[in-house]
Amino acid sequence: MIHFSFAISLHLQLHATMAAEFLNNFKIPDYILVPESSKVERFHECDDDPVVPDCPVLVFINSKSGGQLGGDLLLTYRALLNEKQVFDLGEHPPDKALITIYANLESLKKRGDQFAMKIIERLKLIVAGGDGTAGWLLGVVCDLKLSHPPAIATVPLGTGNNLPFAFGWGKKNPGTDQRSVEAFLDQVMKAKEMKIDNWHILMRMRTPKEGSCDPIPPLELPHSLHAFHRVSEADELNMDGYLTFRGGFWNYFSMGMDAQVSYAFHSERKLNPEKFKNQLVNQTTYAKLGCTQGWFFAPLIHPASRNIAQLTKVKFMQKPGQWQDLYIPPSIRSIVCLNLPSFSGGFNPWGTPNRKKQHDRDLTAPYVDDGLIEVVGFRNAWHGLVLLAPKGHGTRLAQAHRIRFEFCKGGADHTFMRMDGEPWKQPLPVDDDTVVVEISHHGQVNMLATHICKSQSMYDPSSPHHDNEEDDSDGEVEEDSLAEEFRKFGAADTFRIPDEVDISELS
């Protein structure tokens, strides 16, 4: 019995030792994280040649995401790593944390600190939350123009989780116990790096002559739009007599009936949050709203004046400086500008054009790092159901570096828009004014992807490529001129979630 107890004790000690050695691959010492740390001298004195972690990480967690899961995950990471390298986004905005740590790293680098230099080269970021939280961190990293931008892994803690799904991290909320976190860290260490395009969105409308200076109540805009302030008078995008908003997205921008149904769902959830605690209930409610809003019976219920072609003129740019008119079939009631192959529960609306379409229409696979955005149209919800088929896709309209929507006075006084899962009701001109929404490429960030990654890179030979697929679309596309680069993306403000917004509701 004594020998058995000794064996168990030895086994536990061995496991603890192995776990500690494994976690050392990710830990960062205080002197890297805290400027002018008192531990600098002691760190160097106790080890003339300290071992640099193979995969040092900074962890950012939305503690309010996933119900109790965010808070539990925060506690586990802090117990396993240096708690100073784990940040609660409710208390520490990522831009301030990254600016502080990178300034310290650069200072140490200038002093010839080899350890700090290797930390910069190997550093990775982990963000746990919904797509809104992940987009916040991605926007900050894109905006800060760090000397050696770290790659980012995403932990799915939201509702949609399109970003984690697109890069192989799954859609289901993860476990929060030690073993689950260690398994995730192991995946991070083995993950490959992949770049992802970032898209800037500009919205411009005339300043109202009467009433509020804000034509849209702030909380009706997605956080990546209402959190950034209108551009200043010094901004080159500013136009006298107009309100100009700017923001960005990583997954998609959509307009029309899909956004209308999403808006109805979010409005219901805002009014009765207690009814939306169960994922199955949420999906059922969404389907019901799709029926009541007419999305399934659009030809009978939906007025033709709300169809995309009647609402807006669309121009796109495939080559710099060459704007072209984009033909939108009259039956299209929803249009999606897609960056990632994950939309509405993980579907890929673009698919992969067959070789004939690639040759005749100059279409390519939906690479996430080619500087092109895929523009897809849908007639109704039944059309959307083709995505359930192995090679199903929407109506391919274009691939563009830049796309512009111009809304003039017409049959509708509003439409619905959605950006990375967050919808809003957009007023349209009632006089001779024009509302402009323009989307353009704005840099890239590095993502971490697992071996089951859904996204494709144009530079990675190992990216999955699919063969012949029938194409039902009819319409050509091209692109616009990329003049001067846009100014700063404004990520610190653009992706800052206001205090009055419950970030646990962001998906």
Question: In a nutshell, what does this entry contain?
Answer:
With 507 residues, the protein is of the alpha+beta class. 31% of the residues lie in helices and 21% in strands.
Q: In which range does the helix fraction lie?
A: 25-40%
Shape: elongated
Lateral arrangement of strands in the main beta sheet: 6-5-16-13-8-9
**Which value, in Å, is the CA radius of gyration?**
24 Å
Low-confidence stretches: 39-47, 211-219, 293-298, 466-507
- How far apart the termini lie comes to 54 Å
User: Regarding quaternary structure, how should these chains be classified?
Assistant: single chain
Structural category is alpha+beta
Task: Estimate the mean pLDDT confidence.
Answer: 75
Number of E-type strands: 16
Total number of helices? 17
How much strand content do the residues show?
15-25%
**Most strands sheet:** 6 strands, antiparallel
What does this molecule look like?
This protein is an alpha+beta fold and 507 residues long. Helix content is 31%, strand content 21%. It has helices at 2-23, 30-33, 40-46, 69-80, 94-110, 114-122, 131-144, 162-166, 178-190, 223-226, 257-271, 279-292, 298-301, 308-311, 355-361, 381-384, 491-494; strands at 57-61, 86-88, 124-129, 151-156, 192-206, 242-249, 252-256, 312-317, 323-325, 334-338, 373-378, 395-400, 402-407, 414-419, 422-427, 435-449. The strands form three sheets. Strands 6-5-16-13-8-9 form a six-stranded antiparallel beta sheet. Strands 12-11-10-7-14-15 form a six-stranded antiparallel beta sheet. Strand 8 and strand 9 form a beta hairpin. The longest helix has 22 residues, at 2-23. It is elongated and about 75 Å long. Residues 39-47, 211-219, 293-298 and 466-507 have low confidence and may be disordered.
